[in-house]
Amino acid sequence: MTWLNRNIQRFLIALLVLALFGGAVVVMTFVAIPADNRDSIIQLIGGVNTLAGLVVGYYFGKASAEGGEG
Question: Where are the domains of the chain?
């Protein structure tokens, strides 16, 4: 596990979250969601949206601008 250091782990998790967000946007755009499940799906998308915001904030936020780490 020498190649999988902490920074690479963070990057892979961030990539996974952003891929989930992108997939969710595509699904919401092109797939018809039944009315019974609409509220649940929207809440799940909101949670993934929050995670994507945290990822972007981590990599491009204030600490990144100052040259600090996480």
Answer: 6-66
